[in-house]
Amino acid sequence: MSENPAQNPRPAQLDDRSPWVVDTRELGRRAGLSRELRRSAPVPTSLGVPGVLEIREGEPVELDLMLESVVEGVLVTGTAAAVATGECSRCLDPVTENVEVDLTELFAYPGSATEETTDEDEIPRLVDDRIDLEPTVRDAVVLALPLAPLCREDCPGLCIECGVKWADLEPGHGHEKIDPRWAALVERFDENAGEKPAHGSGEQA
């Protein structure tokens, strides 16, 4: 009789060559031990909305973190910072946005009470005493990106009639609008104004 498949299959191994993967073995699962981590890690895929604001693939994320061994796992705290590029949502000029997020994430030890009582999409796990920081940083950074980036807070945007930036237009710029109900009358008036009066066609008294 064949054995039943494992209810919780072993997670795939993490790639030690990735700058996002951190070996925590030196913490030794002894609560209270900690270490600092500072490194630069490129994003594997673009983060954000292309054409609006994004951290492009390969751009570095600067990590400044503290790893602390606690009873249930490894607690990671600190910051992640990157530069996003895109365009102003009002005038469409290029914009550059410095993005920095605060991180607080517990990576659960295998066999811990936290691992047994939570799903992996709620709290990440250690795999062979290693942690993968990329999903945690990615989620935090994406949430921090503004949905409507601006080149400056008071950007006046574009003229809705001609599409030129208000900042480049002369004071008092505007476009006259004719009520559609009067448009035909104005057109007829212009036609009549262009006609020359006939000479000698009137009757004399």
From TrEMBL:
<dbReference type="Pfam" id="PF02620">
    <property type="entry name" value="YceD"/>
</dbReference>
<feature type="compositionally biased region" description="Basic and acidic residues">
    <location>
        <begin position="13"/>
        <end position="23"/>
    </location>
</feature>
<feature type="region of interest" description="Disordered">
    <location>
        <begin position="1"/>
        <end position="23"/>
    </location>
</feature>
<dbReference type="InterPro" id="IPR003772">
    <property type="entry name" value="YceD"/>
</dbReference>
<protein>
    <submittedName>
        <fullName>DUF177 domain-containing protein</fullName>
    </submittedName>
</protein>
